[in-house]
Structures are given as C-alpha cells and as structure tokens.
Amino acid sequence: MFWSKIFLPTLKDSPQDAEVISHKLMLRSGMIRRVTSGIYTWLPLGLRVLRKVENIVREEMNASGAQEVLMPMVQPRELWEETQRWEKMGPELLRIQDRHGRDFCLGPTHEEVITDLIRNNIKSYKELPLNLYQIQTKFRDEVRPRYGVMRGREFLMKDSYSFNLDEESLAESYLLIKNTYKKIINRLGLKFKIVKADSGAIGGDTSEEFHILAENGEDTIAVSDSSDFAINTELLLKDGEDLESFQGKPSPDGEGVIEIKKGIEIGHIFQLGRVYTDAMNVNVLDQKGKARNLFMGCYGIGVSRLVAAAIEQNNDDKGIIWPDAIAPYEVNIVAIGFDKDEEIAKAAMDLYNQLSSMGYEVMLDDRKDGYGTKMKDAELIGIPMNVIIGKQYLQNNEIELKHRDGQSSTGKVEDILTIFEHYKSS
Which of 75, 174, 272, 423 could form an S-S bond across to 204 if both were Cys, CB 3.0 to 4.6 Å? Predict the structure, then answer.
C-alpha cells in the first residue's frame, strides 16, 4: 500500500474531547472518526487492526470446537419478557418499534435469542455439549459514553454460549473457553489478569473477568504479587471491605501480598446454570428418556475494546507501539526523495516488491514530505519495522532498518533482506 493512496487522515494534536491515551492515538493516527456520542467509523488503518484481532479470536474459538453462527442484532420483545429482562435491563437496552407498533430492541447480548434457537432445534442429549459463537455488532445505550471505543455504545464483540446436560459438563466447557481466552490474549502479546467478578445483569453464580493491565483502566483490581489471585474490588466493597484497608495485606491464597492495579475489562465468562433454560423451558431427553433442562454458560470478549486496550498497554510519547500480531502493516518503507530521485524510487519499489513477495504487509511512503514528517507519522501509527532509503543509499549503497522500539541498524539492501528472511522464517 502506498501512503499517497491510503485514506489516512492523521492529526498533529489530540482533540479536546479525547480523555485517554488510546482515544487520542486512535484519532490522531487516523484509525477512527466519531459519528456521534459513543459511535465511531473505523477507517482503513483501524479496520485492519480490528480484523486482525477478530481473526485471532475466530481461529482460537474454532480450535476450541465452538461453531460460528450469526444472530440478528434486532430482537423481539417477547423473548426478553420470557426472562423478565425487558424491564430489568433498564435504559441501556435501546427499545424500538417497527411500522406495525411491535416492540424490539437492539441486542446488547444474545442469551434469549440463542436459548430460543436451542429449544427449537436440540432434542437429545446426544447432541450435547454444544458451543455456538458469533462475532457481531452490539449496542448498549451507555448513559455516558467515554474513552472512545473503550466505552462506546456500539461495539464489536465475540459472544458464545455453551449448552450442557449437567453441571460437570458445564464446568468443562467453562474451563475450555477460559483457556481459549488465555491463548487469544497471549497471541495478542498483552499482559492480563483473570479476576473473580460479579455476574451482574447476566446472572449465574460463577463468573470471571479478563483484565488487560493498564494505567488508564476503568476497574480497580486487587492482585497478588506472587500468584494468580485477583479480584475486582467491587466485590470487596460489597463485602464491606475498605480498599484502602486491603492494600499490602497477605493474599487470601497464602501466596504473596496484595497490590492494587488498574485494569481494562476485555472479557467476561459466566456459568449461568439453568437461569435462562428454566425461564424459557429448554430441555432434552436424557439417556433414560426423561426431559431435563439444560445447563448453560456464556462467554464474551470485546473485539473492538481489545484494540483500545492494546494501545493503552503499548505506547510512548511518539505514538502507538503495536504488538507484531495486530500491527496494521508489518513494514514501512520511508523513501526520502521518492518524487525527486529515480534511483531512490527504484530501490524503494524493488524492496517493496521483494518484501511483499516474501509475505510481508508493506507500506511505502511515497509522499513528497521530508524525513521528519514521514518518521513522525510512522512512529504515530506504530508500524513495527521501518526501512529508510535516502542519502545513505545514494552515497554508500546503505539503508537503515529502524524498529519502532528505537533499535536501528544500517546495511546493504541484501543484508537487510537477509534479516527479513530470518525474521519471517522464525
């Protein structure tokens, strides 16, 4: 992709309404643009990152044995009344009417729809366990949307639902998705904690949240400095604990002491039990031919929120530092004098074609701007590797390889290509 061709409206300064780092950098780097409060358009650069996150989520969900479906965003009132959530969800549920005066809502989640699907299509224990998932736009009418896509009203989410004959099977499905989420976040290269949490409006007795550790996290979590113990401090406050009084105490699991961290919740998993299947009368015939209501789990991970969380954890004063797995492009060729010197232009084009043929996703900065402007933009959008072709190439036949983390080296074109070959093969 050529810089002169891509729709990439970068900004020198952060808009005044941008509150956190990820919101500022997503706007400045031309990843998103605001349509209205809590609703954003994803531009080409941002969409490439979003799709990479989505693909990693899809690959790991498929590897777990889950099957992908796509349910409607618009849901009828009748299903929500069966679980008594039409009123319980409150104003976050955006209610609408069609031309016939029938009530619908824009789906913030899909427990009712998926449960209805199962009760009408699954009849025998032999068809279980079953885990279905989708990656789809959700809408929650947040009272105060903020932090860009991190707390928007419209967002992209992976939600999945397991159906099991008994509690033991539910626990197995729950653990499988818990481990799947670990794989997803590890592939993204992010630091995280799994936190005991409140089930809230979704329901059920057991739930855990996945938090990306970041200074601008909305949630406060208490974690052990020597083990995996972690708990959302909301639960401590419900139990009458002062947070302040919890700091520095021995961890409840007997390992290490408690530290207070900030986290961004990007995933939440629940053992729902029979909350929905009892309400909606969902059963199958067991081995003895007896009708038994199913046990259910639900598992959500915020795809668009993961993009913002990755930026919150990976940035500096120059811009974004993308983890390799989700960088919009892998290599950026900074051609200084592309429009003025045929030798530089040819070298840049040759390198562009060679790296592309090796399987790299490459940008070529063919703009008329100088080195300073091109490097500022490159550092802002956070491409992992930059190859600089300019005066050194004309004088010494050398080009510079500059990593986004600040490391750099110079060498002949063939030497740089050898580095890229080794990097790709490893």
Answer: 272
Q: Is 140 helix (H, G, I), strand (E, B) or coil?
A: coil
The residue whose two tokens read 């492009």 is 329
Contact 372, 388 (CB under 8 A): no
Of 382, 383, 215, 194, whose CA–CA distance to 312 is shortest?
215
- For the stretch 257-276, pLDDT in tens is 999 999 999 999 999 999 99
Residues 6 or more apart whose CB falls under 8 angstroms from that of 246 comprise 222, 233, 236, 258, 260
Measured distance CA(378)–CA(385) in Å, rounded: 9
CA pair distance 331, 361, nearest whole angstrom: 6
Q: Which of 415, 26, 53 is nearest to 266 (CA)?
A: 53
pTM of the model: 0.94
Q: Which two three-digit tokens encode residue 102?
A: 């029938």
φ/ψ of 46, rounded to 5, equals: -65, -35
List of residues 6+ apart from 189 with CB closer than 8 A: 323, 324, 325
pLDDT at 394 over 90: no
Residues in the chain: 426
User: Cis peptide leading into 9, omega within 30 of 0?
Assistant: no
Contact between 301 and 158 (Cβ < 8 Å): yes
CA distance 410 to 389: 10
Tokens of 189: 């290269």
Cβ–Cβ < 8 Å for 360, 424: yes
Distance of alpha carbon 330 from its chain centroid, rounded? Answer: 19
**Crossing angle (nearest 10°) for helices 303-313 and 21-28:** 100
Instruction: Determine the average pLDDT of the residues in 92-102.
Output: 97
